[in-house]
Amino acid sequence: MSNRTKDITLDIVEAVRDVLRRHEVTFDEYRAGFQHLAKTQGAGEIPLLIDVFFNSTIVEIENEKRRGSHACIQGPYFVQNAPNVAETLAIRDQDAGHPKMVMRGKVTGLNGQPVAGAVIDVWHATPDGKYSGIHDNIPPQYYRGKITTAADGSYECRSILPVPYQIPNAGPTGELLETYMQWHSWRPAHIHYWIHADGMRDLISQAYFEGDQYIDDDCCNGGGSEFMVPEVYEGDVRVMEVNFTLDPRAEAGSEKAA
Ligand code: MBD
Ligand code: FE
């Protein structure tokens, strides 16, 4: 284990001890607290709980080091090995009547040079707020895919429109947010992106829909996105134009040790 792991772990422990002392936490409260964590683990919601509170901080740290497009929270529902898609993400038969969108834009480097052959993983929720491969046994090929940019850095792919999204709130994470913290469990409607390109730093981001009431009131403290897409239509298809600027990959050896 690196010293970094040791140092961070010791600091986390000390930070938590500080809170326990400051609030003079009792045996009963201590047990109730860790039992809630155990319940969260039992419900498979540890990734959700941790992302709700802490992913946004990792994003802040990451964005200090970026000159191109900024990162956004990734969330717990990325799935590896999504299918390569050409024109449209797979749409469930039951969602076929839902309003449509086209995602398009360009991937460039810091000097505006097109990035050809970049692979953009996109993923978004179903109209009923579920993620394929995670919830309700929805097969993982729906509403996910890898799009590859053309020679001029452009990409285009269709799907249905995501809607304002409530994180799973029937379990311990929802109970914590809504009952114990008197908050809510909503996020703005969003599309997730994870871009990989040779010689470039990966970019994990999201696009939001301009005017969405949860952009500034996001239960994950997402802090918005530089990609707030205005309401533009081609016929009855909403156009989600998002252009990404990638930073070059850091020099070998300059990344922090694992
Ligand atoms: C999500 O869909 C999401 O995007 C985030 C950041 C957290 C929980 C669920
Ligand atoms: Fe999400």
If you had to describe this structure to a student in words, what would you say it looks like?
Pfam families: Dioxygenase_C, Dioxygenase_N. It is a single chain. The protein is α/β, with parallel strands linked by helices and 258 residues long. The chain is built from four helices and twelve strands; from the N terminus they run αααβββββαβββββββ. The chain has a single domain (43-246), classed as Aromatic compound dioxygenase (Protocatechuate 3,4-Dioxygenase, subunit A, Sandwich), CATH 2.60.130. Strands 1, 4, 10, 11 and 12 form a five-stranded mixed β-sheet that branches. A hairpin with a 2-residue loop joins strand 10 and strand 11. The termini are close together. 3-methylcatechol (MBD) binds next to helix 3.
What is the CATH T-level topology? Protocatechuate 3,4-Dioxygenase, subunit A
Number of helices: 4
Oligomeric state: single chain
Query: Rg to the nearest angstrom?
Result: 20 Å
Helices and strands, in N-to-C order?
A: HHHEEEEEHEEEEEEE
> How much is the average pLDDT?
94
CATH architecture: Sandwich
Class derived from helix and strand content: alpha/beta
The unique ligands bound to this protein are: 3-methylcatechol, fe (iii) ion
Largest sheet: 5 strands, mixed
Family: Belongs to the intradiol ring-cleavage dioxygenase family.
GO molecular function: catechol 1,2-dioxygenase activity; ferric iron binding
Pfam families: Dioxygenase_C, Dioxygenase_N
Domain Intradiol ring-cleavage dioxygenases: 103-131
